[in-house]
Amino acid sequence: MIVLLCEELERLGHGLDLAAVEEALAAEHAEVEIRRQAGPCEKAAAWLDPGLKAAGGLILGLCSIDGGRHELHARARRLGLDPFGIEVLDLGTFCALAHPRPQATTKAGLLLKAALAKARAHQKSGPENTKPVLSWDQQVSRRALLTLPPLRYEAVPSIRQDACAAEEGCRVCAKACPRAALTPSDDGRMVLKKASCTGCGACVSACPRGAFDFPGASLPEIEAQVAALLNGSTRDLRPRGILFTCRQNAATLERFPRAGDTSAAEWFPVEVPCAGMVTPTWLLQCLDLGAAAVAVLTCGRETCRFGQPEVVRGRVEYAQQALSMLGASPEGVRLLETADPTELAGALAFVPASGSERRDGPSRPALFSPLGTAQTLLDLAGGQGAGLDRSFIHPHSPLGVVELRDGCTGCGACVHACPTGALALGRGQEGLALTFEARRCVGCGECAPACPEGVLRVEKTTDLARLSRGKLTLYRDHEPRCLACGGPIAPQKMLEKIRTLLGDDRAVGVITQYCLTCRGGHGALLCGRGDLRDWKGTTEMRRGNTGGQSRGERG
Amino acid sequence: MSCSRAAGARAAPRRPALEGDLPLHELARLRHAVYRVLTTVLLYPDAEWIAILPRVAGELLAETRPLSRFAFWPAWEGLLRSLRGMEGADRAALEAAYVGAFMVSPDGAPSLPYESAYYPPEAVGEVLASLDQEYARAGFSVASSFKEPPDHAAVELEFMGLLCQEEAEMWEREDLAGSVERLRREQRFLERHLARWFPEFARRAAELDGGAFYGLATGAARDFLAHDVDLVAALLGRYREGAGT
User: Fold this and answer.
1) Is pLDDT above 60 for A331?
2) What is the ipTM of this complex?
3) A29, exposed or middle or buried, with CB in 10 Å at 0-12, 13-18, 19+?
4) Which of A27, A387, A494, B49 could form a disulfide with A409 if both were Cys (CB 3.0 to 4.6 A apart)?
């Protein structure tokens, strides 16, 4: 790992004590090489050389990012470096220009440590993560139409098919995508249409399987960065707040530190491609990791990649409601919808102590996946001394509760559709049991339409009592045994339904007395009964109205 | 020299100083050249192969400017460097590598360079017929002297190269409608054929050949094709909006 720092940071604004920054880094990361580069850092692309290829990671601490990212990426690409793996920190905006020298120096050290953690979690990007974007001239001219305009590349997510549950019917990412860029292919695999993707990352944080790679903003990278920012080894600058900022906000933030600004040094920026990526789970998990407060700064632009500000508001509102439920201050989570630097600085004047801050830092690794929500809420409840008899319903709840009405036949279609394993079918001496584990449910609702009986319902409920329990049995049934092999045939209720559907059909006897393997796989069984011809004829006559039977047999 | 911020100036928004504009006919010619090189690389290595490709690679490496702006550059550069180093290479060793990678592998199933090998058996006829149609529609057919089926990787890559060449000619004539039509044809061919099977072919080749030449070559081709699908889509996006017509 190599850290390149612009020397001008010593003189910019209040200035940074670069020697102290280097010392702080070296104390924890002896393996990291720190180099000071002579300015100007607007031309930081020129700092890159082929020798950096072996560095294993690169972090740039600059006075300003100021749109130089694409030049940097272009040069990195030419040198064979992974451009999306280069961490660029605007230490001017967030440190030197904003805070007195001692605070700015401490903050710069922390931001660099977090960038190192993020760079370590980076997985190399591939061609599937790269989307060319052509910056066409606004004015149409003959010449413009005949030339390739300046080309830049944006990162887009890619899907790890081995982790994706699309083939089982999961559509969570497709529903989360505001641009309909994710669609299942003919063979059932989820496919990302790069041309439609804006790189907002909503799919990445929504996927309950963590099946997306998104270089520069993958879950492991964000998680590592936040955990490092909240690490307890540096005692100064506490209590700390995490400020998720949309990448499109660069222009607002560039104008942010002005004379008389009142923003507190304790707010630490975490840049994400779009505020649409930030889920309630992330907000709460920052608090669980030790943040005293979390804020989301949206770009508020018409060109917002996510384009659904009401969803971002809803998520923040959910997190605030969850905090209230736990007896903590809802002030711990806030939404900042402004492009006015003065207003922004005022909103960040101090980090409100939410009462949930853990001064000793995180006790366990963070889990920025949807499945980490339950643990986070229980941790926060424990920290607040809140009882577990609390619940609330919210449309943006990252958790859900499955309820089952009478009529389940135990076919298991819901289990097959559930992408998180919250629903499971178990077989034992007592028969078959359909179980539900609330802490694994993300309330995606994929199971409800899969139920052939229409008896399953999902509610966007956050229920501490259910989260604290393990598996709950929703349905239990006896399974008659196969006359041939002794194995289970199907749940009793399903067999009863088959009897009702088929009436006095001769097939009923076979279906209800023999398991699927014995009646389908061994013709000898039927031949031995001497009625194979009749049996086949009967089946053909009934084929048109046995939908319930075929669904039931899946169980 | 100091940073504009350190000097007290507030940075003004500026257009990124990226590479200069590239005429689209030159872009099409560059893509044609890449397709030609990839075509030859995936053909059985003969004496001519060894005599010409290293020299061509050397020439392409000497003038990196036009291609190094593209995201597929690292993989492409790696392939060119490897090719350049093959001047006077042992042909028998290269032939053995080709056979091991694409024909008969002692380490497991070879990575077959035929599109139909990546579909169920019942789809083979459809794939071959579809390719013949595509070639015929563009006025081409596979030469009778070429002893491979029309779904060989080299044939499909060469066809894409020919489409790029036609596109370049259209741009040179400033025939926008003709150029866009060629781009659409390229997009259709990429999406229906190369983009569908080549990544799996490259993956298998990399498994078998690892960091050796044919693993590197198929990897570079895969990266280039992935980029070409996106680039053609981005170019067409402009004209789909009606600005170009």
Assistant:
1) yes
2) 0.83
3) middle
4) A494
